[in-house]
Fold:
Amino acid sequence: MVVPLRSVTWQPVGQRLLVIDDDPLYQSLISRLLADADDEAVTDVAPTLGSAHEMLYLHHYDAVLVDVTLPDGSGLDLAADLSQEQLAPPVIVITGSDGREVWADAAAAGATTVLPKSLLSAERLAGTLEFSYEVTASERIATLTASIATDTTGTVEPSVIDEVIDRLVGHLNLDRASIRIIDPDGSVVATAGSTSGGRPEHVIARTLDGWSAVLTIEASDRRWGRVDAALGNLCDVVLSRTLLEASYQQLDLSEHRYRAVADASADLIMTVDEADTVVAANLALRAELGIDPLHTTLPNLALTNPVMALAARLLTSARQSGEPAHLDDRPIDNGGTRRWYSGRAIPAGGVPDDEAMHLVITETTGRVVTEHELSTLALTDPLTGLANRRLALDRLQHALDQVGRRTGLVVVAQLDIDHFKSINDLYGHAAGDAALCAIGRRLNALVRGADTAARLGGDEFLIIAEGVPDADTAGKLIARLHHDLGGQVAFADRNFEISVSLGYVTVHERSMEADEVLRRADAALYRSKSDGRNRFTEFEDHDHIFGSVAEISRELRHGIDEERFRLRYQPIVNGDRIVGLEALVRLHHPVHGEISPHEFIGVLIESPMLVPIGEWIITTAINRLAAWTAEGISDDQLRMHVNVVPQQLADATFIDHVLTELARAGVDPHRLVIEITEQSLLDLSRRSSGLKRLAEGGVGLYLDDFGTGASSITHLRSAVLQGLKIDRSFISGALAERRDADIVDGLISLGRSLGLDVIVEGIEHLDQLERFAPADVSVQGFVYSVPLDDDEIQTLLVDSSSSRLVARTHEPGG
Ligand code: C2E
Ligand code: MG
Ligand code: MG
Structure:
C-alpha cells in the first residue's frame, strides 16, 4: 500500500527526527545517540517503509535516518521518493555494509549522506545531522535563488522580494528574516520581511555597483558556514534583479518621457528597424497616416502616402551612406494642396550593430510660404504680381551671362501702355491700375515659364525671353506679344481699349552689358512711340546718324558756324484757313542731307549751342513772319509757333531776346506762340518768371504733345496757357482703336472746358480729319501739308488766301 507523502518542512536543529530501521537493537541505539546529540530532538521510529510513509505524512521531520535493508523494500527507494518532493527532509542512509557502492547508490537516490553503522556515535550523528541540515538549507536557498534568477518576467517588485523572504523563512524554518536594498547614498530603497530585534541575528551583506543587499536572519543556534555562501548568492541575485528592475523603471520612465515629448511634437517621428519596419511612431505620425503604422514597413506606407515616400527616400540615403541624412523643404502635392517638408534620418547608433533608424519629418509649409511671400514682396510688383525692377535686372544679367553657353538668342523687350497718362487722367487711377493689371495678366499668360515679365515702374514693362532659336522667331514672338497685350480692359461698368508700344533688342553675343541692352530696348521703344505708338520696333544700330554725343555736338557747332540750320514751316489749319505755322528746325548735313530734329534736339538742349541756335530760330521765325506780312503773303492774323525747351525759358537773356526781336521786327507779340512740352509746364512754377514775362509781353503759350507727358489738369488751368496740341500718337490708328478716339474726344472737351484753343496734331487721313476736327478745333498734319521750306510755304500761303486749302490723305513717301 502506498501512503501518499505530504509536503514536509525542514525544521530547525533538533526538532523532529525519523529513524527507520527494523532492527530493534539499532532502533534504540540510534534513538539514544540522537538524544545525546540533541536533547531537544524528538525521535520517531518506523520499522518498515510503509510505516515510515505514514509517519512522514503525519509529521514534519527535520531529517530522516533510514536503513538500506528493510522488510518491505530498500531505504534508498525512500530516499529516491523524497528527493522528488519539494522541501523534503534530508535523508541520511544508515548501512551495515562498508562497500563503496552504497555511497554511489545513495547519492544516485538523492540521499544527503551515508552513515555506516560501524561508525555510530553521538558526535558522529550530531555532525552528520548538521551537515545534512546545511546541505538541505543550501540546496533550498539555491533553488530559491535560481527561481528568482530565472524569473523572466523582468520585474522584481517589492511584493516579489517579500515573497523571497517568506519563502526563505519557510524553507529554512526561520523565526524571521528581512532584506534591505540600500542605494549608493545609503538610503534604503526597498525592504522586505521583518526582524524583531530581540533574537540573535545573522547578517549577510552583499554589494554591487555601490548598492547593497543586507539580509538579516533571526534564528538561534544555527550553523551558517555552508548556508552563508548560498544566502550570499541569494542576496546577489536579489540585488541585481532589483537594480535591473530599477533600470527598467528608469528606462520606462525615460521612454515614457521621450514618448510624451515625441507625442507632443507636431513633427512626424518614427523608428524603423533593420527590416524598415516601423517599431515606434508618435501621435502626429499616427494622425497623419490615419492608421497605426507599427509592424508595417516604411516602403509599404510610402506606396500610399507621399510624405512617407519622402521619409523612405531619406531612409534609403541614410542607409546607403551610413550617415545621418537630410532633406530640406521638399514640396509634396498632397490631396491637391502643396505642402513642404524637411526631414532627417538618424541612425539609432547606441547599441553596436543596431540597424534601427530614427526619422523625423517636419512640415515647413508655413516657413516656406512666409519666405516665399517675403521674397515675393521683395522681388515682385505688388500690383501686377510680375517681377519688379530688381528681379528683372537680376534675371537680365543672368540671361546675358548665359548667351553663348546656351543655344538661342536672348530677346529683351521694353514696352509701355500708349497714353497711359491720359487713361489715368480721363478715367481715374483705378482705371490705370486695371490697365496695368491687364498687361500683367496677359504677360503672365504669354511668356513661357522660363522667361521673365517684369514691371519696371509706372507703365513700363520688360520682357526677357531666353533660348529664342533665331531672329525670325524673335520677330514673331514680339508681334504676337504686341498684338495680344492690347485690347479691351474691363473696368467698373465699362470697357476701354489699350494698346502698347514696344521696342526690343536681340542679343546674340555675350559682350553686351545689361545697361546697354536696356538702353537699346528703350531706344527702340522710343522709336515706336515717336513713329506713332501702338507698334513694335527692333533696335537697329544705324538708328542714329551720329554715333556719339560728341559727334552731334561737333555737328551742332559746325551747323551754326556754317549756317546749316534751316526752318521748315507746317501749316496749322482751321476750317479751310491757315491760322498758323509751326517752325520746325532742320540741320543740313553735307553727307546725310537734311537731318531731323529727332537726331539732335536731345543733345542740343543739354549743350551750350542751345543759346545761339535757339536765338537763331526765334529771330528767323520772327523775320519770316514780318517779311511775309510786309509782302502781303500772309494776313496779319497768321501766328508763328516756335518750339522752346525749359532750359531756354529759364534763361532771362532768351526771354529778352524774344521780346527784343518782336519789337525790332515790328511783329505783334500775339502773333508769336511758344510751344512748350508738358515737362516744361511741370517746371512752370520755377520758370514762371520767364513764361510770365512772355505772356505779359503778349506772346501766346501752347502746350505741345499733350496727353503723353505727366502734366496734371491743375497745370492746364495755368493762366498763361492759351492752347494745347493733342499729340499725334493718339491719331495714328485712332479710327481702328476706339479707345484712342475716346481719349481724343475727352482731351478736346477738356481743352474746351478750360477755354483753351485745341490743335489736333498728326492728322494724315481724310477720315481722321472728319472724325477729329470739329469746327472749333484746329488741325496740323500731313493731311494738309508736311513741313515746307521757305519757298513752298510762301506758295501755299498765297494759294490758300485765294482758294480753299485742299485736304488730302497723305501717302507715306508721297
Ligand atoms: P512737335 O513740336 O510736336 O512737331 C510736330 C512734329 O510732328 C514735326 O516733326 C512734324 O513734322 C510732325 N508731324 C506733323 N504732322 C504730322 C503728321 O500728320 N504725321 C506725322 N507722322 N508727323 C507729323 P519734326 O519736324 O520732325 O519735329 C519733331 C519734334 O522736334 C517736334 O515735335 C519738336 O518737339 C522738336 N522740334 C522741332 N523743331 C524744333 C525747334 O525749333 N526747337 C525745339 N526746341 N524743338 C523742335
Ligand atoms: Mg511743336
Ligand atoms: Mg507736337
Summary: The mean pLDDT is 85. DSSP finds 27 helices and 32 strands in the chain. The first strand starts at residue 16 and ends at 20. The two ends are 150 Å apart (CA to CA).
